[in-house]
Amino acid sequence: MSFVDVHVQAIEECRQEAYKVRNMLDFDDAFTDGKSKAPKGATSAEIFGSLEGASALAKKIDDVWGSVKDEYGWGRSRMQGVEEALGQVAANFRGAAGASGA
Fold first, then answer.
1. Which of 85, 67, 66 lies closest to 19, judged by CA?
2. What H or E segment, with its residue span, contains residue 38?
3. What is the pLDDT along the chain (102 residues), one digit of tens a residue?
4. What Rg, from alpha-carbon coordinates, does the chain have?
5. Is 58 strand, coil or helix?
């Protein structure tokens, strides 16, 4: 195994880890093994009984869950970018090594 192969292998291992993390950042999958469940649909104000402002509270809860879901999506997108960038770095490394005869 050459010096270049060692570096490319390390980059590829990092890329694979980025792929694993990206797949872990799925909103629905985050609740798979837990006791909690991802919310389905809008929060009903009825769960708060006759509490004044129950509708506004239910809306805020939905807003928070929406933000959490958005953050998961943002994280997935960023991790996909990292994964792709590492793949490009590995390809560039191989190309440069091939061009130099290494």
1. 85
2. none
3. 566 677 889 999 999 999 999 998 988 887 777 788 878 889 999 999 999 999 999 999 999 999 999 999 999 999 999 999 999 999 998 888 777 766
4. 22
5. helix
